[in-house]
Each structure stands twice: as structure tokens, then as C-alpha cells.
Amino acid sequence: MIVKEKYLKSAKLNSLSGSILLFADKNSEIKNINSLLNSSERNLLKKNLKNQNKKKEIFSFDISHNQKIIIYSIKNNKNSYEKNGAKLFEFFKKENLNKVYIFGDTIEDPNINKCLLEFVHGMKLKSYSFDKYLTKKNYEILNINILTRKKVDLNLIKNLSAIEKGVNYTKDLVSEPGNILHPDEYAKRLTQLKKIGLKITVYNTKKLKKMKCNALLGVGQGSSRGSYIVTMEWKGNKKQKKPLAFVGKGVCFDTGGISLKPARFMEDMTYDMAGSAVVVGLLKCLALRKAKVNAVGVVGLVENMVSGNAQRPGDIVKSFSGKTIEVLNTDAEGRLVLADAITFTEKKFKPNFIIDLATLTGAIVVALGSEYAGLFSNNDNLSKKLFDAGKKVDEKVWRLPLHENYDKLINSKNADMQNINYVGGAGSTTAAQFLQRFIINKTPWAHLDIAGMAFSKYAGSLNSSGATGYGVRLLDKFVEDNYE
Distance of alpha carbon 270 from its chain centroid, rounded? Predict the structure, then answer.
């Protein structure tokens, strides 16, 4: 179902046909009702309200053969209008409604305009579906007509629309099957983002070999597809010297390599590129809303396959940083991709900070489930900013420890380090500890392990089942609050 909105200044109830939404406060009272309804309509409404279960959040009743009144009682979610909008969308969908009039001035909030726009924002986020490969598509449209005497904030509409497009693009990328969105196709799609103002640079396999990005190339060498680093630059602030840097793991399909994954649920490994998709969605969002910052997104794109040319357990590779890595498990491949991407980003762009995102470890799902992303960082200030932003948009992060004592678990006798901890325990921490070694110049850095957040078998508050788009709204809020 596609949500389309229109903003109207006024209309009389008796002139409308369809469904009419009114907001009730915690006392089941409706604000500004006298200016909207005549006395007989108010009496009918009062009678129906009296007969309803006040504990029910959303309820409706017919007042004529072509009019339905919907009451949404907002009681405890004062600061979560996006979630309220998502709940409304679910109700409209269940009731098969296609035209709704929302009397916005009945909202009990001083900033009615912002609330209304966030309501629609929540509806749009919740309405996403990936039906590209269905031969029979349902293009049903839900027309939302918002009636309010307040002036519409066009700038806020633009910003929220940019977030929606960024989140949905991330979801589209994560939802694509591996035979379609392989590294070659992914890199090609990213070049199309030039048209929205991003500077795109593609480093292909040949260039990466010259650059000696052997950690990343080792992961992709078993595939018939190419391996890439793609950079996306947004320059929205001429005075800002150091860009904000975001790095994403883009393993388009992960078989585990020779350290083969179990067959069950391997089809889900198309979303092992979700970290890169978040970076892409964020940069698209920043460009569309003309964010007043300089930002760079860097993604490492590979396919981890099994073949006669695949990387073997026990191989030793020399990374872009010059540090050597003993590959004891080819299924611990994401950290190899990020190792080269992180050092490359730090050396080339000399950024203010680096935040990397990856579906990196199953251990983080054991620790935090699907409620929080794991946060690891070498900088307390950066960590706090991410935590605060996540709390505001309900894309939560939880900080976990890094400590030099964990280094002994990834030290190798044959190379500078090994890519797994054979002793056991602290799987997510040792993975982050590994990544930290590729921050060469003490750049503030944070790692977000989003393995439990990027994809969901069940629907969330603002998304349907499947790709969640987690991270785009978090990082956009982080940028908006701290760097614009």
C-alpha cells in the first residue's frame, strides 16, 4: 500500500465522504471539536464515545452510510508520533481504507504541525514492502488528507522525505537476492547516485591489487565477480575541514567460504551487506536534504564464495595497513573487508571520526538480541553522541568493552594477528578489537555490530518483516544534532 498525503486548510465534516480521524487525549476528550462539528454531530460523537471501551487505543463507528469516524486515543506515546503513525497505518490497512481525512487540530500538542508530519512519516516508513519480483503487484493507494489551520513546514517535509528515501533505499538493497545484487551490480548502482550530488569513486579489483588491499581481496577471490571499494562524498559545508566518515561491510553473499556455513538459513546471507547499505542510505539522505556537513561513505563490496580459487583456512594476507593476518576461518570475513576499508578511509580522507557498520558476529545477537546494536569505540564522546541519537529515534545502541587484554586472544604465532579467537568467548569484542588495530592514527572510531538489527523475521514498530533499514535514522539524527 502506497501512502500519499495532501494538506488542506479547512473542510466541513458533513461535506466529506470516507473515514474521518480525530485524536483524543488521555481523558478521551477531543480538542477544538466545537470548531469542527455542529451540535448534532457533537452529540452523536459523544454518544458513541460513551459506548466505547476507553482502554482501546483506536476504534471507529459509522455515523452515516458514507462516513466513518475513527478515534485515536494518544495516552502514553507523547514523544513517538512516528510510531503512532505506523499503528494508524496498520489499522487503515486492516480496515481496507483508501481515503482518510485527519483533523490535525484535534492533537493535544503545542507543535501540531510537527506532530502531523511525523505521523505521516511513520505511516510511510511502515508501508514499505519489497514486491519487485512478484508477478502480481498490489498498488493500492492510501490517500491521507490532513486538515489543519497551521502552516505546513515545507522544510520539515523535505527532510522527512529524504529520510524515507534513504531508509527505503537501504531496505531495497538489503532485500535484493544475491544473484541480482552481486558486487558488480552493486558498484554500478552506486554510480547512479551522482545525479543527486554525490561524488562517486569506484576502485575495482585491478586498482585494489595495486593498492595492496589484500585482506579485502582475499575474501572475494573465490567469486567470479569483482571486488570493490566505492567512496561516496557529500560536500555540504565549505568551512568544514575534516569530513565525517562512515564505513560499511558489503558482503553481497556469504557462503562462509571454505569454512562453509550450515545450509539452513544460508539464504539469509544476502543481508550480509546491510552495513554497506546503511552507509549508502545515509549518504543518499544527507544529499537529498542538503545537509550542511561534509561526509564520506566508504563501502567494501565482495562476494564470499567457494571455488578452486577461494581463500583457504591458514592463508596469510598482508592488509592495506601493512599488517599481516592469518585467516583461520574464512567465515570471519567481514572484519577482513573492514580492515582495509577502515585504514583506506583514515589515510585518504583524514576524517573527524570513523563509524563502521557491519553484520559482523552472531555473538552480538546472543548478547543483545534484536533490541540493540553493539557499540564498540575508542572514544567516550563519540559513543555518547551515538547513544543519545539512538535513544531519540528508537534505534538503540549498547556499548560493550574493548581492552588490551583481549588482544592476546587474536595474536597469531605466524602473523601479526589471526582473524578469529580460537579460545572462545567474547566473540563480538574480539572482532571489534581486531578492527581497532586498523585505526592507525588514533582517529576517533566507533564500530556498530548490527547483526541482530538489520533484518527481522517479524515486523517492528516502524517496519514490516525483512530488511529494517536500521542505522539510517540513527546516524542522520547523530549528524543533525552534533555536526550541523
Answer: 16
